[in-house]
Amino acid sequence: MRIVSGIQPTGSLHLGNYLGAIRNWVLMQDALNAGDQAWFFIADLHAITLRQEPAELRQNTREIAAALMAAGIDPARSILFNQARVPEHAELAWVLGCTARIGWLNRMTQFKEKSGKDREGASVGLYTYPVLQAADVLLYRASHVPVGDDQKQHLELARDIATKFNTDYGVELFPLPEPTIPPSSPRVRSLRDGGAKMSKSDPSDQSRINLTDSEDEIRNKLKRAKTDPEPLPETAAGLEGRPEARNLVEIYATLSGESVDAVLGRFGGHGFGQFKPALADVVVAHLAPMNQRFRDLLASPELIDRALAEGAERARETARETMRDVRKAVGFFA
Ligand code: TYM
């Protein structure tokens, strides 16, 4: 297994990132066998596709690293680093940009969402973002990429790019990476709008539970989370057409390790006045220990910085090897 995944440092880590991806990173890391490797990185090159304040970017990068370590990523077992420290990511992205087709990128839904109405005014980087993401994965010849369901399309593109590169140059340089999207991990929705995913970029902090929120903040956000006036249904089928109710029940089920039906077996027929405090208990029980570790780590930023620098050195060993093969395959004099 060669496991690779990344996260953007554009805000704090939230429950969607945790349930959709990070929890799975930790599980996969903990199941590594001899000969397996895992690379987890903070995607700072991706972050600048939208305008970032430099000082904030630096602080967010450090905080995301601390949050990942608090969530269980161990720099002794996984290679943890920030992407910009490994210049081969950008170099491979250029080469793969010459393999990817414009028509393929035109189909990427995230660009459409992020560029909004002002497509002409979006950065070129935002458009070619999925090519950089393909480079991130292929640089380490990943076999498995644990991501949330919203990244599936980008991973399919990475497979298409790998296939075309191998075919065009008559090599078997890149294995096809498998997205690992656990069926039990839902796409976590905004607490204010069941139609939108929970996201770092939502201007309302009430829309998400950050891994760094205090117990009071978590309880308040869940208390104020949007719901509907009906009591909870008895079975999962009854959640149809009730996205806010579904989201809260799925969060409960995922964290408690139960099925949605089992949760509804207990709470079905009751209102949210009863369910929300029970949900808050489960969320707080999971996040409180992480929260404490996060604060302890941030008190020693030099430890985080050292871990990232060392991680980048280790990542570069593999990155350089892949680039040597890529240069040779393409016909560069180097
Ligand atoms: P990012 O930073 O938006 O999110 C990091 C991870 O969290 C998952 N995720 C969610 N899962 C469930 N519900 C949600 N509401 C939710 N929000 C986020 C994402 O699926 C992701 O797995 N482009 C990527 C970062 C990236 C990357 C890569 C990932 C760059 N290069 C190479 C994998 C491999 C991104 O913006 O994720």
For the CA atoms, what is the radius of gyration? 21 Å
Task: Give the low-pLDDT segments.
Answer: none
Mean of pLDDT? 95
How many DSSP E strands? 5
**What is bound: which ligands?**
tryptophanyl-5'AMP
CATH superfamily (homologous) name of the largest domain:
HUPs
Strand order of the largest sheet: 1-2-3
In CATH terms, what is the architecture of the largest domain?
A: 3-Layer(aba) Sandwich
What's the short story on this structure?
With 334 residues, the protein is mainly alpha-helical. It is built from 13 helices and 5 strands. The model has no long low-confidence stretch (mean pLDDT 95).
Question: What structural keywords apply?
Answer:
54% helix; three-stranded parallel beta sheet; mainly alpha; binds tryptophanyl-5'AMP; 2 domains; two-stranded parallel sheet; globular; Tyrosyl-Transfer RNA Synthetase; 334 residues; Rossmann fold
SSE layout:
Elements: E1 2-7, H1 15-30, E2 37-42, H2 44-47, H3 54-71, E3 79-82, H4 88-97, H5 102-106, H6 109-115, H7 124-138, E4 144-146, H8 152-169, E5 178-180, H9 215-224, H10 243-256, H11 260-267, H12 272-298, H13 301-330
Parallel strand pairs: 1-2, 2-3, 4-5
Helix pairs in contact: 3-12, 4-7, 4-13, 7-8, 9-12, 10-11, 10-12
The protein binds tryptophanyl-5'AMP (TYM).
What this model shows, in words?
- This protein has helices at 15-30, 44-47, 54-71, 88-97, 102-106, 109-115, 124-138, 152-169, 215-224, 243-256, 260-267, 272-298, 301-330; strands at 2-7, 37-42, 79-82, 144-146, 178-180.
- By secondary structure, the chain is mainly α.
- It has 2 domains: 2-186 and 301-330, HUPs (Rossmann fold, 3-Layer(aba) Sandwich); 205-296, Tyrosyl-Transfer RNA Synthetase (Orthogonal Bundle), CATH 1.10.240.10.
- The chain has a 3-stranded parallel β-sheet with strand order 1-2-3.
- Helix 1 links the parallel strand 1 and strand 2.
- Helix 7 (124-138) crosses helix 8 (152-169).
- The longest helix has 30 residues, at 301-330.
- It binds tryptophanyl-5'AMP.
- Tryptophanyl-5'AMP is lined by residues 5-8, 16-17, 20-21, 43, 46, 133, 136-137, 145, 147-148, 150-151, 187-188, 197-199.
